[in-house]
Write a structure and sequence with these properties.
By secondary structure, this protein is mainly α. The protein has one domain. The protein is built from five helices and no strands. The protein starts with a helix and ends in a 9-residue tail after the last helix. The N terminus and C terminus are likely disordered.
């Protein structure tokens, strides 16, 4: 029973950890603004699945020049599959 409870808590903690996205240093403000406009809680599923089209459209109209180039290169990094947490 204790092992079952531990694995349940570990699974919940891992799911919670994997759902949040923090922008890396150098993320253009226009990308942050577009992401938080549609996904204020910065959840992975919201940004990378549910609102991806809206965020992309926002970035294309809000970012320009070097910011647009940076946003295009950061997007795959932000939405790649987050690896499991091994320390749980």
């Amino acid at each position: 029973m204790i092992a079952s409870t531990f694995f349940t808590i570990a699974a919940i903690a891992q799911a919670a950890f994997a759902q949040m996205i923090s922008p890396p240093p150098g993320t253009p403000q226009c990308l942050i603004t577009c992401s938080t406009q549609f996904c204020p809680t910065a959840e992975f599923a919201c940004i990378c699945q549910q609102q991806l089209q809206n965020i992309t459209a926002c970035v294309l109209t809000s970012c320009s020049g070097m910011d647009l180039t940076a946003a295009e290169s950061l997007a795959p990094q932000l939405c790649r599959k987050i690896p499991p947490v091994d320390w749980l």
